[in-house]
Write a structure and sequence with these properties.
By secondary structure, the protein is α+β, with helices and mostly antiparallel strands. It is built from four helices and eight strands. Helix content is about 35%, strand content about 40%. An eight-stranded antiparallel sheet has the order 1-2-3-4-8-7-6-5.
């Protein structure tokens, strides 16, 4: 009987300390439905086609959201470590400028204690930021984009 109690206790401890990763693409979020999710080579190819160029060999995932209020897209690129994610964040945000892109009024803003790059273009607000080894690009309708992002950040915390 003692072995069984120890086993149950060990399982409880393991489950308690093994934190589950957050669901980065909820099925229903901010009154929007996840209508499509791309992973693997399909996501990588989508990102490369979007840029008319081969820009990534990393793992990518893309979630497309839609609902009565509009649309949003969450792009995530996974790197080997946080430093590489931050380096790529810096490179990406440096390349986005009014001189050579469709984006305007770009700036760094603080939301929930995070340094987030915000830019506007194609009828949406776009946010770029990192979290651990991940680089995020979130595009959403201008009217509610910041609320969408602020709520999404609670998933990551």
């Amino acid at each position: 009987m003692r072995k069984k109690q120890v086993s149950v206790f060990l399982i409880f401890v393991l489950l308690t300390f093994c934190a589950k990763d957050p669901e980065l693409f909820p099925e229903y979020y901010f009154e929007l439905n996840l209508i499509k999710k791309l992973t693997g080579s399909e996501a990588k190819n989508f990102v490369n086609r979007l840029h008319f160029n081969s820009i990534t060999n990393e793992k990518n995932e893309i979630g497309f959201y839609s609902g009565i209020k509009g649309n949003a897209i969450i792009y995530i690129t996974y790197y080997d470590n946080e430093i590489t994610a931050i380096d790529n964040y810096k490179k990406m945000t440096e390349k986005i400028s009014p001189d050579n892109s469709v984006f305007t009024n770009s700036s760094y803003i603080d939301i929930s204690g995070r340094n987030i790059y915000r830019t506007f273009g194609m009828g949406q607000t776009h946010y770029v930021f990192t979290s651990s080894n991940k680089l995020f690009w979130i595009s959403a309708e201008m009217q509610w984009a910041q609320d969408f992002l602020t709520e999404y950040l609670t998933i990551l915390d």
